[in-house]
Amino acid sequence: PLSITLKGITNDGVDPSIDTWRTVTLPMLKKLLGEEANFELKVLSRGAPPGGHLGLSTYALSKQSTVAPTYL
After folding, report:
1. Which of 11, 54, 58, 64 has its CA 20 to 30 A from that of 43?
2. 38-57 pLDDT, tens per residue?
3. How high does pLDDT run on average in the chain?
4. Is 26 exposed, middle or buried, given 0-12, 13-18 or 19+ CB atoms closer than 10 A?
5. Residue 1 DSSP one-character state
6. How far apart are CA 61 and CA 45, in angstroms?
7. Residue 31 in contact with residue 49, Cβ under 8 Å?
């Protein structure tokens, strides 16, 4: 499985927030990779400018061997 830990800003007015990733991007990836794709995104703490060093999130993806063709 793939596991990533991200540190930094989770919310600001310039970039997509971690909530956008959770509610928009991950469901789109699940549709692309198939229902068996198992994504997990946890926001452990939030960080905002200036600094943002307190934000911490983890992302995990179970093993995926193929990507199904997708027509947008």
Report:
1. 64
2. 778 888 888 888 866 678 88
3. 79
4. middle
5. -
6. 20
7. no
Other residues' Cβ atoms within 10 Å of the Cβ of residue 53:
10
Does the bond joining 49 to the residue before it have cis omega, within 30 degrees of 0? no
Q: Is the Cβ–Cβ distance between 29 and 37 less than 8 Å?
A: yes
DSSP 4-71: EEEES----SSS--HHHIIIIIHHHHHHHH-TT--EEEEEEE---TTT-TT-EEEEEE----------
Regarding pTM above 0.85, the answer is no
Query: What CA–CA distance (Å, rounded) separates 24 from 56?
Result: 19
